[in-house]
């Protein structure tokens, strides 16, 4: 596994089919790039320069570049470019988000964009926490779960504090908008295994990731003390992400001090 994976490793590829020059061609988005599977871009450029008819697949590439460059909020109510297959829409959303986060890391993001990015982060983390605690909720007189999220600035370290009291669980998480790509875009935000706080490693094929996970003991309620572990998760085509191993020696994000704390009072 790579200790510093790119965000696209582990994100489900998107594939679209379309009619092109009398045949069915595929256009794929994988590892963060749009690929015309049935074309050589250099050869197509030569043919077009010689007066040949542009291939419909090339129109998809042109529309893709335009869609990713545009601000989602401004084009949200416009009709989708007919050259763009609907199957590529999730990939477009992720590529737009990646573009914003690159600007965020370098300080080039418009400050007016931050509240929208933070709202998206809060909503996704809230849903992820709800999915993580759902298997442990008791049908009657269950614990109330509270989430406090602190969005980080570029370069700041994540932090996690969990407090468990009778009838109440408080989760305080400090994380950055990169969580949206590292965790949510990979489909790791809705896990019965627990709340994925961060991803420390991933293989290029995207079949396995190493993640820091907050989870509760199986078959116990939220009153039990949760743990924070490094887990190796594997993508199963039928069941989604499952726990492959508990990896004490797996890649981790280097820090100068323990960054999480769990407190339980009876």
Structural key phrases:
27% helix, 266 residues, 6 helices, 30% strand, alpha+beta
What features would you describe in this structure?
- The chain is α+β, with helices and mostly antiparallel strands.
- The protein is built from six helices and eleven strands.
- It has helices at residues 41-49, 56-69, 72-75, 89-106, 114-133, 179-184, and strands spanning 14-20, 23-30, 33-36, 144-151, 159-165, 168-175, 195-202, 208-215, 227-236, 240-246, 260-264.
- The protein has a four-stranded mixed beta sheet with strand order 4-6-5-11, with helices on one face. Strands 7-8-9-10 form a four-stranded antiparallel beta sheet. It has a three-stranded antiparallel beta sheet with strand order 1-2-3, with helices on one face.
What is the topology?
Layout: E1 14-20, E2 23-30, E3 33-36, H1 41-49, H2 56-69, H3 72-75, H4 89-106, H5 114-133, E4 144-151, E5 159-165, E6 168-175, H6 179-184, E7 195-202, E8 208-215, E9 227-236, E10 240-246, E11 260-264
Parallel strand pairs: 4-6, 5-11
Antiparallel strand pairs: 1-2, 2-3, 5-6, 7-8, 8-9, 9-10
Helix pairs in contact: 2-4
């Amino acid at each position: 596994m790579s200790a510093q994976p790119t965000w696209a490793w582990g994100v489900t590829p998107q594939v679209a089919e379309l009619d092109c020059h009398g045949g069915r061609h595929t256009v794929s988005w994988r590892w963060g790039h749009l690929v015309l599977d049935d074309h050589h871009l250099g050869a197509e450029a030569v043919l077009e320069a010689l007066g040949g008819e542009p291939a419909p697949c090339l129109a998809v590439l042109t529309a893709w570049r335009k869609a990713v460059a545009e601000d989602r909020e401004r084009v949200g109510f416009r009709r989708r470019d007919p050259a763009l297959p609907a199957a590529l829409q999730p990939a477009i959303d992720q590529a737009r988000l990646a573009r914003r986060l690159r600007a965020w890391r370098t300080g080039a993001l418009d400050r007016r964009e931050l509240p929208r990015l933070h709202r998206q982060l809060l909503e996704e983390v809230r849903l992820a926490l709800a999915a993580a605690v759902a298997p442990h909720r008791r049908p009657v007189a269950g614990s109330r779960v509270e989430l406090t999220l602190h969005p980080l600035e570029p370069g700041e370290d994540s932090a996690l504090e969990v407090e468990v009291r009778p009838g109440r669980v408080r989760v305080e998480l400090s994380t950055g908008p990169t969580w949206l790509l590292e965790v949510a875009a990979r489909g790791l935000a809705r896990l019965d295994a627990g709340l994925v706080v961060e991803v420390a490693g991933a293989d290029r094929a995207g079949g396995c990731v190493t993640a820091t996970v907050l989870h509760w003991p199986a078959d116990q309620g939220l009153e039990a003390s949760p743990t924070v572990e490094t887990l190796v998760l594997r993508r199963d085509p039928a069941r989604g992400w499952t726990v492959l191993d508990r990896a004490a020696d797996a890649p981790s994000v280097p820090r100068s001090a323990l960054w999480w704390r769990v407190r339980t009072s009876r």
